[in-house]
Specification:
This protein has 4 helices and no strands. By secondary structure, it is mainly alpha-helical.
Length: 70
């Protein structure tokens, strides 16, 4: 059976979710704190002009938590 365009989009989105989950697992400790790698990621994203709200959403933390790393 052929794969429909919707099934292809779902597969693509699932792959992107896996990547985002990997980023979060690297950026945060098991206790939910920002790891050293997470601090580096925040620095890189801020230098790339990404705003705090978007970074916070990406890392599943509050924007206020990012103020420690500015």
């Amino acid at each position: 059976m052929a794969i429909s365009p919707i099934q292809k989009q779902i597969a693509s989105l699932e792959a992107k979710v896996e990547v985002l989950e990997s980023i979060i697992n690297i950026a945060k400790t098991p206790g939910g704190r920002i790891s050293d790698d997470g601090k580096n990621l925040i620095y890189i994203l801020r230098n790339a002009k990404m705003n705090k709200t978007d970074i916070a959403k990406l890392l599943d933390i509050s924007p206020a938590a990012l103020s420690k790393y500015d």
